[in-house]
Structures are given as structure tokens and as C-alpha cells.
Amino acid sequence: MRITGGQIRGRRLHTPRGLLVRPTSDRVREAVFNILGQRLPGLNVLDIFSGTGSFGIEALSRGAVSAIFIDRLRQAIDLIRKNIDSCGYGDRGTILRWDLTKGVPWGHPLLRKRRLDLVFVDPPYSRNLAIPALTGISQGKGLNAGARVVVESAKGSDLPPAFSSLQKVDARIYGDTEITIYEFRD
């Protein structure tokens, strides 16, 4: 697994052992950034259900100024820390261990102090967590107008066209993965 673009293009990421963490393939990540744009200067990013942290690190490589990574699994937290440090983004990446089935922790100081421009949502396919996560994100407590929310789900997930202030602007299928992009409209 490698970073597909930006400042550290080609850098290898640490990958998980076992089946608890499902990393997003390089091909899917590259396709997502082809849609979003190759350069993301000045953006603040939130990567939830982070796993390896690949989406957030990819955004940092392409110019994002900060990324907050949220996951509940100790294995994922350890992987994210290793990957952030090995990529040289320890000063721009922050990790929060949180169970996202309890909702997005908008009240946490890390999320209260900055407005977000880009959110990655990559929950376990089998747990049907995309819709609850989108419901929490759609509250928009920390999103800038025009913020984009990228959701990775199983092919055929059939996510709704809107969630409160989030409007679907794109959806594409890559093998057994579906990528859906929403935009926050205040």
C-alpha cells in the first residue's frame, strides 16, 4: 500500500495484520483524488473509521494543513501513528480514539477548534454505519460551506441523495467498492 500522489508519492504505508482493519486500495484512493483534485492546499481534513489513516495521509501529502484521524480499534490507532510518523506528518496529524457508533464527537476540543473542509468516511462494510455517520456529519457543526464528504461503502449501498445539509454530488463504483461524495450546503 502506497501514497498515490503529492509530496510523498510512492511512500509505503504500514498495513494491518488480520481482518480487523480493511485498508482502502491504492486504486480506489487514487480515483477519489482524481475526483477531488490532485492538490488540496490549506484544507482541514477529518478521516473517520481511519484504519491505516491512508485517506488523511494522502490528503496531507497533497497539501492539506491538518488531519484528524478517528478510530476505536487499538490496532488502527497504532497503525495510524506509525504511518503519520513514518510519513513525517506528526505535527499535522492528530489521532482521537473514539467509538463512532456513539456519533461524531463534535464537542471534543480537537473538533471544536477548527472548521473542516474534507471528511473521509470508511466504516466497516458489514456494520451499516455509513448512514448513522452521515447523519452525524450532516449536522454540520464543524464544516465549512462547500466541505466535501467522501464515503466508501460496499457496492450497491444505495446511499440517499441528501442528508439535511449534505447533497450527493457524485457516486462511482470500483470493483466491490462504491465511492459517494457529498457537499455541505449551509
What does this structure look like?
With 186 residues, the chain is an alpha/beta fold. The chain has one domain: Rossmann fold (3-Layer(aba) Sandwich), CATH 3.40.50. The chain has five helices and eight strands, in the order H-E-H-E-H-E-H-E-H-E-E-E-E. The protein has an eight-stranded mixed sheet. Strand 7 and strand 8 form a beta hairpin. The model has no long low-confidence stretch (mean pLDDT 92).
How many structural units, i.e. domains?
1
* Terminal residue distance: 36 Å
The biggest sheet, with number of strands, parallel, antiparallel or mixed sense and barrel status, is: 8 strands, mixed
Gross CATH architecture: 3-Layer(aba) Sandwich
Radius of gyration (Å) = 15 Å
Q: What name does CATH use for the topology?
A: Rossmann fold
Shape descriptor reads globular
Order of helices and strands: HEHEHEHEHEEEE
Structural class: alpha/beta
Query: Could you tell me the mean pLDDT?
Result: 92
CATH H level, superfamily name: Vaccinia Virus protein VP39
Poorly predicted runs: none
Number of helices: 5
Broad CATH class: Alpha Beta
Q: What is the share of helical residues?
A: 10-25%
Beta percentage is 25-35%
Q: What is the strand arrangement across the widest sheet?
A: 3-2-1-4-5-8-7-6
Q: What's the number of extended β-strand segments?
A: 8
Keywords:
186 residues; alpha/beta; Rossmann fold; eight-stranded mixed beta sheet; 5 helices; 8 strands; 25% helix; 28% strand
SSE order and pairing:
Layout (H helix, E strand, L loop, with lengths): L25 H11 L7 E5 L5 H8 L4 E6 L2 H14 L5 E5 L11 H4 L3 E6 L8 H9 L4 E12 L7 E2 L2 E9 L2 E8 L2
Parallel strand pairs: 1-2, 1-4, 2-3, 4-5
Antiparallel strand pairs: 5-8, 6-7, 7-8
